[in-house]
Task: structure prediction
Amino acid sequence: MKDIENIGDFMSDIEHEKSKSNNILKLPNYFERVSNLLNFKKVEMPKIQIDPQRYYLAAENLGKRGWTIPFSFTPRQIAFFEEPTLTSEEIDNFFHAYYSDEDNFNKLFQMIYSISSLKQWHLAIRQCEIAHRKELFILSISTLLPVLEGILSKFENDKNNIRMIKVCKQMLDDSLTKESWVFSTIWNSCFHFITTLYAKSNFSEEEPILINRHWILHGRTEFNNSELDSIKLFNALETIANIIKFNFRNNS
Result:
């Protein structure tokens, strides 16, 4: 059995196994009879031990620090962030190094641009990409915020609903009901990320340390947003876009 390289591969493998199972069920019964006559021994594959709670806690830890889980992460990489002693600076440094790898950063955009259902936002995202690469982070961040909200609205039947925390909470609850540890882990990181991003804040007090949607779009920020803030939003877009991609596959 091949190693699972990342969450995206894991989801693809699940779909592939479902497809194989469906095909096996359609085979004529004589295949089973021949198998019995030849006395084939049943091969027991070793079970993969999955502890969903570890990934769930790691997702919460990441989301509260301003990050969502990329589909390119392996289960082992996700579990690493369960460690409660990790500081925000250490987590930020990890992601900064991860996306400083040009291949990782390019793949993020390639994936987003490959999804036709996100076409209405492609031009805006492409211009944000250009701004980011030119270190115009204030421009990329200011546009990425409404783009992220627009893409999240695809999960809401009521198109007048602008409460993104509620949307993410509903999707998280749905994934828990369906007992999908992969999607509940991903949505848990999104829920805590959006909760932090949309946190209510008193404009008469100091600006929050983590990027805050209200301070930026209401023009109350000091506009000293960094490269890391821009990367956080691109990373969140990639996570949500991948969820949309797999939802489309499952519903088609």
Notes: The first helix runs from residue 7 to 25. Residues 6 and 74 are 4 Å apart (CA to CA). Confidence is low (pLDDT under 50) at residues 17-28.
